Task: inverse folding
């Protein structure tokens, strides 16, 4: 991907405008974290984008992110170990950044 095709982002790498997001942008942001997006990643990314569309906000914390995934996709995916394996570090923050959503309010 050509770097000048990357939409404007803030100093933490979050998109300034969620409407600028595309799957290509997501793959480029993930590559910065040395992540190659798989079907499992896309499932969580699409979930987050739906959550944002419905609630007009990102899940505000990791705990609520895990809980929301659990309610939507089941216990095997709605647990912190599964989500940390997909999105290392702070899963809610990393996943929201890749999904083109605003930074979760309570994530460090």
Result:
């Amino acid at each position: 991907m050509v770097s000048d095709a990357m939409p404007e982002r803030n100093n933490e790498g979050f998109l300034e405008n969620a409407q600028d997001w595309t799957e290509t942008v997501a793959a480029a942001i993930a590559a910065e974290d040395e992540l190659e997006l798989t079907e499992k990643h896309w499932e969580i990314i699409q979930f987050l984008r739906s959550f944002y569309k419905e609630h007009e906000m990102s899940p505000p914390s990791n705990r609520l992110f895990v809980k929301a995934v659990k309610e939507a996709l089941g216990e095997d995916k709605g647990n912190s170990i599964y989500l940390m394996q997909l999105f290392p570090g702070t899963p809610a923050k990393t996943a929201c950044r890749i999904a083109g959503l605003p930074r979760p309010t309570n994530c460090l």
Q: What stands out?
A: The chain has a mean pLDDT of 91. The helical segments are 23-32, 39-55, 62-73, 80-86, 91-98. The radius of gyration is 13 Å.
